[in-house]
Amino acid sequence: TRDVKGSKMKRKQGFLFDYNFCIGCKACEISCQVYHNQDPDINWRHVDGLMIHEDGIEKEIFITHSCHHCDEPACMDVCPVGAYIKLENGVVQPLHDKCIGCGYCLMACPYGSITKGKDGKAQKCNLCAEKLERGEEPACVAGCPCGVLKLVDSNVSDSAGMQKEMPGFKHFFTKPNIRFYPRMKRNEFIH
């Protein structure tokens, strides 16, 4: 796979998340951590709960998030040594060997998706690029017992009417490649 900065990508990979049915079990988070053999205090994926008010009822919903492999990744723009490349499929790939640990990418990412490893260098989700090359799903997607996290072509999600925002998530200038199923209201379940 090659660096495609400035050229058109064939298929833009991104996450599709259905927060209507996420139970907050954190299986996606744990699957990522186990697959990448991360230290217990380092997670590239997080599941957060938040309360919303809907139909006069307070409800807890969940959001799972990691690097969103943005169309215009701030991490890549601010890195002084070019320690990030954007692959043909849209994956923003960190180049660990080039990283000098300056932390500019951590500060630039509006989603807080980058962490520092024990070696002081930046780490983040690479969408399990090696698994994708073998035709497999990323660990987080494969680990979700409810099937609410998918890897899809972001352009297809857009044409299908999926949303770019949900409660607790804003679509910023970096143009993240995560989409959300529209919110289902309680009365849509009752017929």
Describe this structure as you would to a colleague.
- The chain has six helices and nine strands.
- With 191 residues, the chain is an alpha+beta fold.
- The strands form four sheets. Strands 8-1-9 form a three-stranded mixed sheet.
- The longest helix is centred in the first third of the chain and has 9 residues, at 27-35.
- It starts with 12 loop residues before the first strand and ends in an 11-residue tail after the last strand.
Termini separation comes to 49 Å
Unreliable residue runs: 1-7
Number of E-state strands: 9
Order of strands, widest sheet: 8-1-9
Number of helices: 6
Principal-axis shape equals globular
The radius of gyration over CA amounts to 17 Å
Proportion in helices: 10-25%
Mean pLDDT value: 91
Instruction: Report strand %.
Output: 15-25%
Q: How would you sum up the major sheet?
A: 3 strands, mixed
Structural class: alpha+beta
Give helix and strand order, one letter per element, not per position.
Answer: EHEEHEEHEEHHEHE
Secondary structure layout:
Elements: E1 13-17, H1 27-35, E2 46-54, E3 57-65, H2 74-78, E4 84-86, E5 92-94, H3 104-108, E6 115-116, E7 122-123, H4 129-133, H5 139-143, E8 149-153, H6 154-159, E9 178-180
Parallel strand pairs: 1-9
Antiparallel strand pairs: 1-8, 2-3, 4-5, 6-7
Descriptive labels:
single chain, 191 residues, alpha+beta, three-stranded mixed β-sheet, 9 strands, 6 helices
Give me a quick take on this structure.
With 191 residues, the chain is α+β, with helices and mostly antiparallel strands. The protein has helices at 27-35, 74-78, 104-108, 129-133, 139-143, 154-159, and strands spanning 13-17, 46-54, 57-65, 84-86, 92-94, 115-116, 122-123, 149-153, 178-180.
